[in-house]
TrEMBL record:
InterPro entries attached to this UniProt entry: Cro/C1-type_HTH, Lambda_DNA-bd_dom_sf, MLTR_LBD
GO MF term set: DNA binding
Coiled coil: none
Name of the protein this chain belongs to: Transcriptional regulator with XRE-family HTH domain
Domain of life: Bacteria
Native source organism of the sequence: Streptosporangium saharense
Pfam families, A to Z: HTH_31 (PF13560), MLTR_LBD (PF17765)
Sequence ranges assigned to domain HTH cro/C1-type in this UniProt record: 12-83
Length: 280
């Protein structure tokens, strides 16, 4: 934990301490107070830590364990984002967030706003939650993939169309696996993570060395050339309300690439103008 992070943590805790009304947590205001909000000794007592130690924490002089940080967060009535922030400043992993069942419906209009840029919403396990017409036109409709296999890693490993489509398939597919391992670290004990690895082992035992490899990498912004040829800029974004989810956006590099994508989307769309099954 760096000195800057300790100092920022202290500033954050003090600001929330001074913002909290003593009566909100059942304390008697006890006459005139020199500063608004709670006193340091009140936070320390309610959190089960020493007054001197809590003072040092606000002054950025000490670090704290997860148990202590969570106890102080409860005393200060921090919400989920506040807790994640203080844990991050303390160099500790944030708690897992429950999956948001309404995320796909809220994000799909965003995906649709890129009519000629394939876009895909992934959850923490790389399961495909929503996609736009351009994605279905280029990569095939994920809605036609069985639900338990509707996963980006499974598609990259098993879909012959994806393998033919990407002119340099193996490095891209390997990076997708490495990005998943990087993201899945806090969720290795999740049932769904185990299911995905079991499906990969069952369907592509020849690639066992891929998902047994412990290496990690980031799927950073890069050019990917697909049949056409069309050059797409691959970028990853995270929805603020669910930072474990990912939006994979594939933007045509040049005007010629955009025109090729536009033609592909136009030819693929049925008369209704919609691709069936754009979210899970």
């Amino acid at each position: 934990m760096s000195a800057d992070a300790r100092r920022e943590l202290g500033i954050f805790l003090r600001a929330h301490r001074e913002r909290l009304n003593p009566q909100e947590i059942g304390l008697n205001p006890g006459g005139r107070r020199r500063t608004p909000g709670l006193r340091r000794e009140e936070v320390a007592t309610l959190s089960g830590v020493g007054i001197a130690w809590y003072t040092w924490l606000e002054q950025g002089r000490v670090s704290a364990s997860r148990q202590v940080i969570e106890s102080i967060a409860r005393t200060l009535r921090l919400d989920g984002e506040g807790l994640r922030h203080v844990l991050s400043l303390s160099g500790l992993a944030a708690p897992k967030l429950p999956a948001d069942p309404g995320l796909a419906a809220r994000i799909r209009p965003v995906l649709d706003s890129w009519p000629f840029s394939p876009a895909l919403l992934l959850d923490r396990h790389f399961d495909m939650l929503a996609w736009n017409d351009a994605y279905a036109a280029l990569w095939g409709d994920p809605g036609l993939v069985p639900a338990e296999r509707r996963n980006l890693m499974w598609v990259m490993a098993n879909d012959p169309h994806a393998r033919r489509l990407v002119l340099d398939w193996e490095p891209l597919a390997m990076t997708v696996f490495q990005q998943f391992r990087r993201q899945a670290g806090p969720y290795l004990d999740d049932v769904r993570t185990g299911e995905i690895y079991a499906l990969l082992e069952q369907d592509r035992p020849d690639l066992t060395h891929w998902w047994q490899c412990p290496s990690v990498a980031a799927l950073t912004t890069r050019d990917v050339v697909v049949e056409g040829p069309i050059t797409l800029i691959f970028s990853l974004f995270r929805p603020a309300e669910e930072p474990d989810a990912l939006i994979l956006l594939q933007t045509p590099r040049e005007e010629a690439d955009r025109l090729l994508m536009a033609g592909l989307v136009t030819r693929t769309l049925p008369a209704t103008g919609e691709v069936v099954g754009r979210d899970r």
